[in-house]
Amino acid sequence: MGNRREIKKPILVTGGTGSFGRAFLEYMLKEGAPEIRVLSRDEFKQEVMRKELHDSRVKYYLGDVRDRASVDRAMEGVEHVFHAAALKEVPSCEFFPIQAVMTNVLGSSNVIESAIAHGVKSVVCLSTDKAVQSINAMGMSKALMEKTAYAAARDGGHTRQTVIAVTRYGNRMLSYRTG
């Protein structure tokens, strides 16, 4: 792997059956990750992924970030977490804003708190460009997810070993329109 740091412990990808999770999973397999855990509530997508990949390094955990116990099960022994689980569709979040809060904010808090409790080295929380000057429930809930991550990072100060980071990337052009 050249100058790159060798990956020695499991990596967890929440929402690992989604578009980011799938692309990231394939990249990490090429990089030689020894084990990648996929935490997802979508049983069907897990089965499709299992059949397509045929790779024993991928371990599937059926669960929901809203359920701290399922997050804790997947988190045990993990070194790095990439948190991609979220409700991402603007119309769904507009019609069911409490569901967006439960997944995007409270579920993210479960992931962050579990990572800290398990001594994970780093957590990267995926956000969206819609978190900036939010005009819809999805963007607002992702902005609150970001605040949750920042607060956890700030509260830990220099005493915690878990680095918490947030990254944003853009969604489909003009997807902020809801009607």
Explain what this protein looks like in three dimensions.
With 179 residues, this protein is an alpha/beta fold. It has one domain: NAD(P)-binding Rossmann-like Domain (Rossmann fold, 3-Layer(aba) Sandwich). Helices cover 44% and strands 18% of the residues. It is built from 6 helices and 6 strands, in the order βαβαβαβααβαβ. It has a 6-stranded parallel sheet with strand order 3-2-1-4-5-6, sandwiched between helices. The longest helix has 21 residues. The radius of gyration is 16 Å and the shape is globular. The C terminus is likely disordered.
Number of domains: 1
CATH architecture: 3-Layer(aba) Sandwich
* Structural class based on helices, strands and sheet pairing: alpha/beta
Instruction: Please count the beta strands (DSSP E, at least 2 residues each).
Output: 6
Q: Please give the radius of gyration in angstroms.
A: 16 Å
The major pleated sheet works out as: 6 strands, parallel
Average pLDDT value?
A: 88
Count of alpha and pi helical runs:
6
Distance N to C terminus: 48 Å
Annotated CATH topology? Rossmann fold
Strand content: 15-25%
User: Quaternary status of these chains?
Assistant: single chain
Shape: globular
